[in-house]
Amino acid sequence: MLSSIFDNIVIRTARNQDRERITALVSNVLAEFGLQIDLEEADADLRDIEMSYLKAGGLFEVIEDGEENLLGTVGLYPVDEKTCELRKMYFVPQARGLGLGKYILERAIARAAELGFERIVLETASVLKAANHLYIKYGFRPLDKEHLPARADLAYILDLNPS
User: Fold this and answer.
1) What pTM was estimated for this model as a whole?
2) Are 157 and 143 in contact (CB under 8 A)?
3) What span, in angstroms and rounded, lies between the C-alpha atoms of 140 and 122?
4) pLDDT tens for each residue of 12-36
5) Is residue 7 exposed (0-12), middle (13-18) or buried (19+ Cβ within 10 Å)?
């Protein structure tokens, strides 16, 4: 099954026309874990993906199957010249557990480095156990952060050029 999902996936830059599908995916995944979408604050970036990510120097990608069904999303949101935030890495239930999350995270880390970022930060919820396990496996370490969105209780950082 793993090879078949990778044979058919298409990863492309998101456009504002994808907003409805992306927002629905994010909302559904959050609801699955007892969390809520917040289009006023934490998820306001979804209102204008092109401005929030692409024109700001980051990226936002959609992962689709060969029939253009949305399997997942991932974004790199520029915080400053050296730091980006991994955002909106969500997958539909049928795409989980197949190695797609690992593949997309590796790709996001590589893309962040290509874009010239030196570190990646992220905010997440402890109920997203598989995601947190994946972040730690890839070298993200806990980050003390004073202000987190209402649904987040954890923050991580990854140095892309550790010395």
Assistant:
1) 0.93
2) yes
3) 9
4) 999 999 999 999 999 999 999 999 9
5) exposed
